[in-house]
Amino acid sequence: MNILILGGTGRVGSQIATYALHDRHHVTLLVRTPEKVQIHHENLTIIQGNVLHKEDIIRAMHGMDIVISALNTDGTTTLSESMPFIIEAMEQEGIQRIITIGTAGILQSRVNPQLLRYQSSESKRKSTRAAEEHHRVYDMLAKSKLDWTIVCPTYLPDGERAGNYRTERDFLPEDGSKISVSDTAEFAFSLIKSSDYKKTRIGIAY
Question: pTM of the prediction?
Answer without folding.
Answer: 0.96
